[in-house]
Every structure is written in structure tokens, then in C-alpha cells.
């Protein structure tokens, strides 16, 4: 299924799209946080959806589980939801992941629309067809491929976020620049918060992902460039979720990008100036990001990464805009990145 993307000022086009589909039922999915802030804003933008059913789940990555999926499916049963219904996922990446996963399996699949409410979700998680939940403490260990029927992006929803969650989304835009465009990466020297959250940057970042996914729907080739920073980043995130100071996804990916840039230096002779600039961006936008971890803390999560085939594999930068996939990395090279 092709995903239709609608932006701010295209609200009538989204409503026409939904009406033409003649869905039997419209169900909104939100977590406790987005229900308190974003659902209200969404209903002000789209009064049509004020009468829609609403399912609310607990907030946080630790609730992206099979148990919470069961809660969603039970509520769908209580609502007598049939195969012609549609799910509207209102929230960040956690909601699009679990909402898409639940929708893809209910009645062998019902449509869903993603309404991303965080920058990270707008530039990355809302698009691509990957759904997933965490299982046995491994991030996105269970998942399906099902593209959302539509996506609606409006930066006004970012006004509901606190600063930490807002800035968490910067990491994915930074990654998109690193793997696609040296000029865009250079521009980020002068970026402000407003530049990152502008509709222009959101479109540029999302278009980068759309262009890559279009070439590789099932994630067997070029799409794996989008994993840059994520092998170590996911391991750091998974470890942090077991501590009293869990990181947000984007914060962990930012740290993962620094590690994997250093490894790219060793394997591809990437200039050290790239990692140093990344550290400057971290200090500029994330001055309070300080999380203590060692290689031993994250090694189990690294070894369990689903991208591994024979040993640890990563997507790494040859140069800005040229990312290699399935690069074999030794434990020593990872340790040295610390």
C-alpha cells in the first residue's frame, strides 16, 4: 500500500481521503501523555474525529509489549471492531510502533493512520512500514511490515512537548544528513532549535527516508543505511531502560552515532573532524546528556541485535553521504570507540 502524506494546511485532503475509504469505525490510539495534550489539539484541528472511540495505553517505551497489545486487542473486541475499521495512532514513535503492530495483526490487518506528535516520529518513525514491540528486553524484537494508509504532519503538535522530548528528535535528522548530504551536514553547524523543528527540515528529513525506503521496502539492502548509529544506540537504550535513568530513543541514538563515527574512522578513515563536530552538536543541544555505561553494560544487547548475521554488523560511514551496510565490526573496535 502506498502511504499518503498530508502536511499542515492539507487537513481537508486528509478528511477526503478518510471519507472515500468508507471505514466502518474510527478508533484513536494514544498514550496517557498524548491523550492529555495532543488528542485535544488533534480534535480541534479535526472536529470530525471528536466522536471517535479512544483507546489509551500507558506511556513509555517499557510498555511497548505484548501485554499492552493484548489490552489494545481486547478493547477492539469490546468495541466490536471489524476488518473495515481504521486505527489513528496519535503519538510518538512508541505509539506508531505498537499501534501499527496491533493493527497489522488484528483480523489479519486493519488500516492505520499515523499522526506523529514528536519530532523524532515526524522525521522517522511515522513512515516506512516497520512496526514493532520489545520482547525479552530486546528492542523491536517482534514486528511486522505494514505501511500506514496515511500520515498527517503538523508542527503545531510539537508545541505540546517538553524540551527534552523535542530535542530527542534531532538525532534522526542529523543521521539523515550524515548518510545523504555533505551540504546539509555543513548547514547543521548553524542550526538552531527552530531550524530543526521547521516544516522545511521535517520535510527534508522525511523525504530522505522516503527516498531510501522506496528503493528497498523489505530492508535487505540500501534501507539498512538508516541503521547508522542504531546498533550501539539501541544497545545503550536497552541497557538504560533497566536503570533508574532511562534515556529517550533519540538521546541513545545520538550517543550511538558518536561511537559509530569513531568506528568509521578506524575502518574507512573517515576524518576525525566529523565525530568532533557531532560532539559539538551534542554539547550545544544536549548539554545535560550524561549517562554512564561501559562496553560490558551493553555487550549482551549488541550481540542480540537482529541485524547480526555472523558476528556484529553495522552500517558505517565511508564519507558524508556514503554509508556502507553490513560492515563486520570486531569487539576490539567497539571497545576502542569508548
Q: Can you offer a commentary on this structure?
A:
By secondary structure, the chain is α/β, with parallel strands linked by helices. The chain is 48% helix and 16% strand. The chain has a 6-stranded parallel sheet with strand order 1-8-5-4-2-3, with helices on both faces. It has a two-stranded antiparallel ribbon with strand order 6-7. Strand 9 and strand 10 form a beta hairpin. Helix 6 runs parallel beside helix 8 and helix 8 crosses helix 11. The protein starts with a strand and ends with a helix. The mean pLDDT is 94.
In order across it, which strands form the biggest sheet? 1-8-5-4-2-3
Q: In this structure, how is the largest beta sheet organized?
A: 6 strands, parallel
Mean pLDDT, as a whole number?
94
Helix percent band: 40-55%
Radius of gyration: 19 Å
Count of helical stretches: 16
What does this entry show, briefly?
The protein is α/β, with parallel strands linked by helices and 338 residues long. 48% of the residues lie in helices and 16% in strands. Strand 9 and strand 10 form a beta hairpin.
SSE blueprint and pairings:
Blueprint: E1 4-7, H1 11-21, E2 26-31, H2 32-36, H3 38-45, E3 53-57, H4 66-78, E4 86-91, H5 93-105, E5 111-116, H6 119-125, E6 133-135, E7 138-142, E8 150-153, H7 163-168, H8 170-180, H9 182-187, H10 193-196, H11 199-215, H12 230-240, H13 249-268, H14 272-285, H15 295-303, E9 312-319, E10 322-329, H16 331-336
Parallel strand pairs: 1-8, 2-3, 2-4, 4-5, 5-8
Antiparallel strand pairs: 6-7, 9-10
